Amino acid sequence: MNKAGPSNYTQYLFIISLALFHLTACTKHQNLPDAIETYHERIYGVLELPHTDLDINLDLQAPPKSTWNIDIPSLQINMREFYALDGCEIKSIVAERNTALGKIQLPSTRLQYEWRLITALRFCEEQLSKQSNEELQNKTTMWLEQKQDLYALNWANMFSQSQEIYNSLVHSGGFIDGNSDDNFTQAKLDLQQILESLRSPESALVNLESALQSMQQHKLYARSLRSQLLLTQSLQSMTEDITNWSSTFQCNTRRDREDLKILRNVFNLYFVQEIQAIASQMNHYHYQLKPIFMDLLTVPQVHPEFSMWLQNHQTNTFENYQAAMREHIVMWQNIFVKCD
User: InterPro entries under this entry (predicted)?
Assistant: First the structure.
């Protein structure tokens, strides 16, 4: 048998490493569905109920992000007056926008461009005041005010049209783990950074791109929504099946009491210690992030359909999940009391 040479051996290791990487990527953030599946199997095994796959729909029902785009009016400037602006950066900034690359700016790049333009117009206005050119200064003031008014619209488009934000809200194959792998602290900082890019652009825009990249990596917001949908639907299904079983359960025999003891142990081990522990952390994330999301949604320039979609998940999806958790726990309490 021929021995693999150094180059073949290196290639072999690379292939193995690549395979392990993909395996890890596929199994990341799967603690919650694994816990639910184990809980489901153990409970149904004890109850001798048919074990069928849970019918779960995790579609967050988000339309294409273009649906949330806002048409922003362009600023009409007399070119003769524009070219009369000397001694400030405004002409070079506008020239960048008119290049082929400038015309296809990403939403975040466009927002930063708009702020540079506002900053340059402020400087131009200040310079013109020193030159006693009142007519051109008044024009510059008018352009500046218009651009400042449009900044919030550009920010709203950045919020709804950035692919990184859309992915972080909508696209993820993972769920909440309830530990440091969730990157909650960073996720909270990222969301605050998005809000600060509206409130304090001069200091916050410098960190915008890093916040967007971070959001796309951790996707905590989408993972949280998917986790809520998963728990709602799986627990509702189990609650219905177990409730039907319990309607004829009286705890009259020694076998009944032994079965219920096993059920109590399974409930404590897999639901309380695993599922409920993850859910508790998810609740913490939700209550910490909700005020920031609500602040973002109070910005009147945000597209109303985007606001409705996000508001629905921040309220209805979360409330439905909490109701499913409560109903499942109350069901077990009513069953356990039969043997007390």
Answer: DUF3080 (IPR021431)
